[in-house]
Amino acid sequence: MFDWNDLRHLIAVSRRGSTLAAAKALGVNQSTVHRRLAELERRTGLSLVQRHPSGYRLSEIGEALIGNVLAVEAAVSNLEHNVRALKNDLQGVIRLTCPEPTVSRIAASGLLDGFHERYPGLTVQFITSDRYLDIAKGEADVAFRSGEPADENLFGRKICDSVWAIYASMNYVQQHGRPASIAELADHALIGFDGIMQNHRVAKWLPGAVPNARIVNRNNSMLGTLSAVKAGIGIAPLPTTLGDAEETLVQVLPPVEELTRAWYVLTTSDLRKTPRIAAFVDHVLDNIPALRTALIG
Length: 297
Prior knowledge:
Blueprint: H1 4-16, H2 19-26, H3 30-44, E1 49-52, E2 55-58, H4 60-88, E3 92-98, H5 100-108, H6 111-118, E4 122-128, E5 142-146, E6 154-162, E7 164-169, H7 170-176, E8 189-193, H8 201-209, E9 214-219, H9 222-230, E10 236-239, H10 240-243, E11 249-253, E12 261-268, H11 269-272, H12 275-286, H13 288-296
Parallel strand pairs: 3-4, 3-5, 8-9
Antiparallel strand pairs: 1-2, 5-12, 6-12, 7-10, 7-11
Helix pairs in contact: 1-2, 1-3, 1-4, 2-3, 5-13
């Protein structure tokens, strides 16, 4: 029936006694006050103000309704106060999901230190998994994740690219040599994937790229795969961030284009509007170089 802004003009006239004084109080033109009052009366179908020699006064109907109108004003004021309080008094936990190997790098990047210094009432809690947790179902609040978002409900921003290459330990290369191509991987012992890693893109790529692969070990985590390669059990694709950081590993084949994916920071559109989540996501987007260093070196 009416617009809150029109009610504001009615309240100002009732308090100031004239449209000129109401206009000054609201910071608008006198013609705006007249237009707003006319629109309010049109919408309600009621005469709410009357003009007198000394100015404007509420009509009998206006007087009957002004108590309700003032109650609306008080409710709006209380709402605005609570919104400001929620924005300014941030408390709680942000549940961040990311691959386990990235946790120590993120912690060492200074990204979280800066966030906690800026928002001492907020805590970032890591939820690590090689499985993609479902943010829409409440399993986490924010994700650092590689791969194009499959869920249209996720809000995201690309951070950098996740690059994978083929690695072996120095001991393995000394004993068994190194492949010269993807096809030659069929002549070597390979590390495969199991459990929750079976749906990972690298697990799907390996059988197609090396149809006769000789799998000597399977792992259900990326850290397990890394450990197996370091132990000299066999060769495996690894993120270059992990493989290049290990002094005992050799990149026996260059990055595989089919395994390259983008790193994203992701949350849902609804969570993005939540003050504590918005504060964290905005902090991340303000510090992309630090996060990029943590994710890919």
